[in-house]
Specification:
By secondary structure, the chain is an all-alpha fold.
Length: 121
């Protein structure tokens, strides 16, 4: 029987996070080029890792959900979930209905678009 040690699990997780971080750097650079240019490599790294950790606190674990969460963080600003003007975002993220994470992040994306459209008018 194959046995995986805690050490191996930790190494797998680190490799997975590293791969995801590389994908996120590409995504952020292509999607938010001006924002990305203002960041040093260390700032970008910290931003991504922080975004992963905050997303995890809201039970967002899939790469797709975390990617969207980090993109929203670029748009609304770091710590948007603790700002009074984005109380609606925190309410969605806290997910009292215990919805699937894909539904939660899609609801959040829709609400962000709606908020941005209202601000334009």
């Amino acid at each position: 029987m194959l046995e995986i040690t805690e050490e191996q699990i930790t190494a797998f997780k680190a490799k997975s996070v590293s791969r995801f971080e590389a994908k996120m750097k590409v995504y952020l650079t292509k999607t938010f080029p001006d924002w990305s240019l203002e960041k040093t490599p260390n700032q970008l790294h910290s931003f991504i890792i922080c975004g992963i950790d905050i997303a995890k606190g809201y039970n967002l674990f899939s790469e797709k959900s975390v990617c969207k969460f980090i993109g929203i963080t670029v748009i609304l600003g770091q710590d948007f979930d603790s700002k009074p003007e984005y109380l609606w975002a925190k309410e969605i993220l806290e997910n009292p209905e215990k919805l699937d994470e894909a539904i939660v992040i899609d609801k959040l994306c829709s609400a962000v678009v709606q908020d941005l459209n209202q601000k334009e008018t």
